[in-house]
């Protein structure tokens, strides 16, 4: 049974009560909220995710709750709670939904030491994936969102997870976080995609979340191996151009963007090494999304 | 959570920088910490040379082939070598190398290893 099978009243009731229990790739999450206004958009963001029954183990019990005391009414705040602790300072209440997503990212990063977690987007065609590690502002999420709306499967927009034993990628298919100008770009590029209302004045600027495609969620557990590591950089006016990158430089980029490479030690070293060896590695400059998509399509065709 | 140590790029640059290294009377030796780490250091061969990972220091370095060669020359306890001796070692290994280019590359490698605190310069 999927989240979309719940009526909006049922969804809101569960969210405010015992929580929505759903699977996002390898993780089972229980989402609760005492901030009812996020229910409608949250239901659409996770519409295609499977619900899990109450007997299943839950990895992360997360909750968004209103601020304490006067903060319920005076410049209202929202708090993120995981397993009864609050790892962050509260944020303005209208940032509740992004806060929930950021909080889930934090949970995965903080508690997943059995997999290599990379700060990177990843998308797949069939069982082959492209990893897109890049610093904020490089156009990573914009490119990821565009690819996902042109037939690529979303594994993750923010956290790429690599199994230490097999080297396979594990998908999450959670919402894509779009920032600032990329919100309107994707709204125009993919009018059918569901985007939440923009939330202004967050620490990352204006943020809107894009729902993953149904196909991405339904195929999230498909075994996928990394085939390309592409370091994207948006450059106004630039033609879309891939430049081959040595696997040493690729290693350093991947290690630099890994959240737990330093904790995993030799296992992290081996996982990064294996990944860059099995990938074709590139830096990628682009400005127009259609051109960028064409380059990725060519990559996929070249190795079909 | 411990602070994340960043991987470090220590490869030779394509355009050699003007060197600030003194040369007369200077010898180079491995830092003591290097010997402590040696048994657990992992190496990976890559297109550009080598990736060196020291799990104890949490440090990852990308080394050009000549940089690893210089490091290996110095990775014996008590060994101290001058720049000239290191140049000669490289030329012994690669007799066809241009001596002037070799000197430039050795100097760049020494700077990289000093920056990475794998070796130290001594004046006696």
How widely separated are the two ends of chain B? 42 Å
Radius of gyration of chain A: 19 Å
Residues in helix, % of chain A = 25-40%
Overall mean pLDDT of chain A stands at 96
Strand content of chain A: 25-35%
Strand order of the largest sheet of chain B: 1-5-4-3
User: So, CATH architecture of chain B?
Assistant: Orthogonal Bundle
Number of discrete domains of chain B: 1
N- to C-terminal separation of chain A?
34 Å
Give the biggest sheet of chain B. Answer: 4 strands, mixed
Unreliable segments of chain B (pLDDT under 50, ≥5 consecutive)?
Answer: 12-16
> What does the oligomeric state look like here?
heterodimer
Number of domains of chain A: 2
Task: Describe this structure in a few short sentences.
The complex is a heterodimer of chains A (about 300) and B (about 120). By secondary structure, chain A is an alpha+beta fold.
Question: Can you give a write-up of this model?
Answer:
The complex is a heterodimer of chains A (304) and B (124). Chain A has two domains: 3-111, no CATH class; 115-302, no CATH class. The relative contact order of chain A is 0.13. In chain A, the strands form three sheets. In chain A, strands 6, 7, 8, 9, 10, 14, 15 and 16 form an eight-stranded mixed sheet that branches. In chain A, 32% of the residues lie in helices and 30% in strands. Chain A has 304 residues and is α+β, with helices and mostly antiparallel strands. The two termini of chain A are 34 Å apart. Chain B has 124 residues and is an alpha+beta fold. Chain B has a single domain, classed as Arc Repressor Mutant, subunit A. In chain B, helix 2 (65-74) packs across helix 4. Chains A and B meet through helix 7, helix 8 and helix 9 of A and strand 3 and strand 4 of B.
